[in-house]
Amino acid sequence: MTITLVAAAAENNALGKDNQMIWRLPDDFKHFKNLTTGHYIIMGRKTLESMNGPLPNRTNIVITRQADYTYEGCIIVNSLMEALAACPQDEEVFIIGGGEIYNQSIAQADKIELTRVLGISPDADAFFPEIDPDKWVKEKQLHHEKDEKHAYEFVFETWVRR
C-alpha cells in the first residue's frame, strides 16, 4: 500500500478555521479530484461533515472516536490503523484531512501531494504538520499564478519519503 497525504496549506501550514477552508482554488479542487477519484480516501469526521457528505466515485473511510457514529455512504472506523486495514493493500490510499489525521498519519505516509498557497499566513485552527527535510524530498513542483478564478498563487508540490 502506498499512503499519500493530500492537502492544501498556506505558508504557515494553515489548513482551515472553524471547519472550513480559507481559500477557494478551483484548479486545486480539480487536481484533488484527479488524484483521488477511484481510490480509497481516509478522513476525520470533521472533514466529512465540512464537505456535507462523502465524495463521489471514491470509497470514503471516516475516523471518529464516537462509538455509535454512522454516515450513509461511508465506512466508519475508530482509528487510523482500522482505516488502513480497511483499504486494499496493493493500492494507493489517500489521506485527505484534517489536521489531526495528518498528524497521526505523516509517520506512515510514503508521499505528500501538497498545494502550497503562497502569500498568505492566515489565522487558523487546523494545521498541516511540518515537513522534515531530513525525511522528505521534494520530487516535483508546478507553479500556478493567481488569476480571475484564483485569489492566490500556489504551487503543487510532490514530496516523497527519503
Automatic annotation (TrEMBL):
One of the GO BP terms on file: tetrahydrofolate biosynthetic process
GO MF annotation terms: dihydrofolate reductase activity; kinase activity; NADP+ binding
GO annotation, cellular component aspect: cytosol
EC number(s) given by UniProt: 1.5.1.3
Functional pathway: Cofactor biosynthesis; tetrahydrofolate biosynthesis; 5,6,7,8-tetrahydrofolate from 7,8-dihydrofolate: step 1/1
Name listed for the protein in its UniProt record: Dihydrofolate reductase
Domain of life: Bacteria
Catalyses which reaction(s): (6S)-5,6,7,8-tetrahydrofolate + NADP(+) = 7,8-dihydrofolate + NADPH + H(+)
InterPro entries given in the database record: DHFR (IPR012259), DHFR-like_dom_sf (IPR024072), DHFR_dom (IPR001796)
Record's function text: Key enzyme in folate metabolism. Catalyzes an essential reaction for de novo glycine and purine synthesis, and for DNA precursor synthesis.
CDD domains reported for this sequence: DHFR
Organism for this UniProt entry: Flavobacterium akiainvivens
Keywords of the record: Kinase, NADP, One-carbon metabolism, Oxidoreductase, Transferase
Enzyme class: oxidoreductase
All residue ranges annotated as the DHFR domain in the record: 2-161
PANTHER family assigned to the protein according to its UniProt record, in alphabetical order: DIHYDROFOLATE REDUCTASE
Family: Belongs to the dihydrofolate reductase family.
Transmembrane segments: none
